[in-house]
Amino acid sequence: MTKKNLEQIAWVTGAGRGIGRALVSHLVKDGWTVAISARTEKELNTLKAECPSGSVEVYPLDVTKVDATLEVLEKIEANLGSLRLVIFNAGTHVSMPVSAFSSSIFRSLMETNFMGVVNGLEAVIPLFTKRQSGHIAIMGSLAGYRGLPTASAYGASKAALINMCEALKPELEAVGVRLTLINPGFVETPLTAKNEFPMPFLIPVDEATNFIIKRLRNSPFEIAFPRQFVWLMKLLYHLPDRLFFSITRRFLKK
Ligand SMILES: NC(=O)c1ccc[n+]([C@@H]2O[C@H](COP(=O)([O-])OP(=O)(O)OC[C@H]3O[C@@H](n4cnc5c(N)ncnc54)[C@H](OP(=O)(O)O)[C@@H]3O)[C@@H](O)[C@H]2O)c1
């Protein structure tokens, strides 16, 4: 494949299914060449086969592996050209009631959802800061705003991402690198299909990713949606603890 210009090369992790997969389809429609990563090569190859020839290239990766992450980035740049946009989307969710509290669930969610992004940033930041350009987008979640029952591990991993992005934003901006934090509510994907609890304001994946791609063009610090859920979560954030817990107590299974 021939190298393209700086404007058109993107890398999406967690691209095999769900939000990542739909993001890739939107990017390709917008004329981007996209490097796609996840662990399941078969899903990546299926996505590649569904996209116009030359628009998508497969780079299998487990984002928890720091050395492999740097190697993949180097391969992408050598094969496709300079990245303009990276979307660190790979992540997962495990519901964990207190009766099943487990350090191994915490470790595994932090490794994928948080350290997976950190590994990507360690690879990309030196390149982008040297070039004084580039756009980094990170998949957080509205679940990172406040602690919700059974989501102590997932919520903690996403809260860590939110805090990290707030800390990084001014420094990256000062060297010409854009940073966007994406905080969705519930989106219909294979991941949420497993959830047995009610999911308020659940939206189709295509609607979610269409919104993300449109908003990414303006490089805001945060893309949070759907609006009603964002306001609800922001309200919960500002409530005094007594009121907050009187609400979240109701989420407990009887
Ligand atoms: N769906 C929602 O309601 C929702 C809401 C808020 C935030 N999010 C966030 O959005 C992101 C995508 O969620 P989704 O719902 O699309 O999930 P999904 O349908 O389960 O897809 C997750 C993708 O991430 C990849 N992935 C998981 N672990 C990985 C690893 N260690 N290394 C590389 N790739 C890995 C998976 O592929 P492999 O398993 O093959 O590696 C898959 O391609 C996650 O960060 C999630 O937390 C989702």
Describe this structure in words.
α3 packs parallel to α4 (103-131) and α4 (103-131) runs parallel beside α5 (152-174). α1 (18-29) links the parallel β1 (9-13) and β2. 38% of the residues are buried. It contains 8 helices and 7 strands; from the N terminus they run βαβαβαβαβαβαβαα. The chain has helices spanning 18-29, 41-50, 66-80, 103-131, 152-174, 205-216, 227-238, 241-248, and strands at 9-13, 33-37, 56-58, 85-88, 135-139, 178-184, 222-225. A 7-stranded parallel beta sheet has the order 3-2-1-4-5-6-7, with helices on both faces. It has one domain: Rossmann fold, CATH 3.40.50. It has 254 residues and is an alpha/beta fold. The structure holds NADP nicotinamide-adenine-dinucleotide phosphate (NAP). NADP nicotinamide-adenine-dinucleotide phosphate is lined by residues 13-20, 38-40, 43, 61-64, 89-93, 112-113, 116, 139, 141, 184, 186-187, 189-192.
